[in-house]
Amino acid sequence: MSPRSSTPLSPPSSSSPFCTSLCELLAARHCRLYLLLGLALVMAGSMGFRIEQIQSNHLALHHESARNVARTILAMRAWNSQAGAVYVPVSPEFRPNPFLHHPRRELHSTDGQTLTMVNPAYMTRLVSEILAQTSPLQVSLRSLRPLNPGNRPDPWETEALHRFENGAEEFSGEVQQADGSPVYRFMLPVKTEESCLNCHAAQGDRLGEIRGGLSLTLPADTQAMHTEIVYVVLRHLLAFILLGGACYVMFGLLGRRWAQERQAMEKDKLAEKMQSLERLVQRFCEELRDPLQQSIRSTAQNAEDIAAVGYRLEETDGPDSPALAVLPQLQEKMGETLAGLQELMHRLNSLRHASLSLGEEAQRLNLAELLTEILQTRAAAYRHCAQIEVICAPHTEITCVPGLFDQILGILISNSIEHGFLKGTRHGHIRIETERLSDSTLLVSYADDGVGMPPERLACVFDPFPEPTGPDRRQGLSLYICYSLVTFRLGGSIRCDSVIGGGTHFLITLPNTPSPDTRPLQ
């Protein structure tokens, strides 16, 4: 069987329209993915902030370390300058400073030992040599007008010295060496002091002016920083996996639980409505049954009386009596009235039978025999305007409530006659075909070649009491009851497809095992 393609319709909602309820949002996979995306953005922001903080702390630590060393050396230079001169015995380690031009550069002690003057600049160079031997720290004096050619600045130090002349108090930063290794460089300005003028007065230096700068270079030691950054990334990644996974699973389970509870509540509400509807239908049928039967008997008696009057007039006045010309019309209208009342009684009995069948127990039945029995029972309703073709394997079995299946099929046939075949004024064809999809699923296809439905009516075909879309487009509870019986009572699904001028097709999927909802309502 190749049923027409159709789109599943959403079940009619028992609550007011609300597009994005909380349980639907939590159960929807894309919404949970958006939640994970938001969590990922928060984690990325936190990780970026932490990495920036680590880098800032790393630079601050190097900066403070270099500043402390530079201030210590400048303090030693200040002590040397305030002392006026510091002399040490001449030795291979302490040779006289060739760039120091001072009349007392060398002195001789009373015991004949030669002493050499160690001025602030010479002392700074000696200290830097000792530091270079014991640590990776490099210290040097740099000047734009050096007496010692070895004190010429490199480009970075030249920029720092120009900034000092413009008022800067310090200059620092992380730079790359020629070999690609990072180092941290720091420089403080060195001003001209009284002791400096002995050698630099000839160069035009004046007291308090910027004479040069004390330059420090130390390794950046990025390994510890990179290790800490790696740990931060791993911690945030682990937190995202654990927290995101837990939220994804928890909200998914919570959403499904809420959806199940909502479906259960809707099912309970529907069951209550169906019970109320059953009682209302049964009371309605009982109250109309006797008056309708009385009307049928009275109409039949009136038809007999009219026939008797006709015979009496024909005997007394003859066949050409003017009164006899009116009697055929009266008999025709009386016959139509009687037929209408009988059809109404038939529908009333069908409705009462269907409401009583809701309390039946599910049975294991032969589907072909069940369809034949139902169509034979309802033959009077459709045989004048429709031909029904049934395609069903002879040994197909189904577990269901016979009355419910009879009511579903009766509603579909009545819908075809009323709307598809225009109340029986148009002859048509109905095709009922069944197919077993698996041991637990049965597919029932019901299709007619009637006038079809417009899209706006198809969109609300299973809604109770939809808004009318035209003068001849009246629709009541029948298809809504059909939908409720299939989905909530038999545990199956139903969908509809229709094209104007191309007929209407219902595709019903039923479980082939007893459903918990096939039990009689209490």
How would you describe this protein?
The chain has 522 residues and is α+β, with helices and mostly antiparallel strands. The chain has helices at residues 22-27, 29-83, 120-134, 155-165, 197-200, 222-316, 322-357, 367-377, 379-382, 402-420, 455-458, 478-489, and strands at 87-89, 106-108, 114-117, 138-142, 171-176, 182-191, 210-219, 363-366, 386-391, 397-400, 428-438, 441-448, 493-499, 503-511. It has 3 domains: 57-220, no CATH class; 256-357; 360-522, Histidine kinase-like ATPase, C-terminal domain (Heat Shock Protein 90, 2-Layer Sandwich). It is built from 12 helices and 14 strands. A 5-stranded mixed β-sheet has the order 9-11-12-14-13, covered by helices on one side. It has a 4-stranded antiparallel β-sheet with strand order 4-7-6-5, sandwiched between helices. Strand 5 (171-176) and strand 6 (182-191) form a beta hairpin. Helix 2 packs across helix 3 and helix 6 (222-316) runs antiparallel to helix 7. The longest helix is centred in the middle third of the chain and has 95 residues, at 222-316. It starts with 21 loop residues before the first helix and ends in an 11-residue tail after the last strand.
Topology:
Blueprint: H1 22-27, H2 29-83, E1 87-89, E2 106-108, E3 114-117, H3 120-134, E4 138-142, H4 155-165, E5 171-176, E6 182-191, H5 197-200, E7 210-219, H6 222-316, H7 322-357, E8 363-366, H8 367-377, H9 379-382, E9 386-391, E10 397-400, H10 402-420, E11 428-438, E12 441-448, H11 455-458, H12 478-489, E13 493-499, E14 503-511
Parallel strand pairs: 9-11
Antiparallel strand pairs: 1-3, 2-3, 4-7, 5-6, 6-7, 8-10, 11-12, 12-14, 13-14
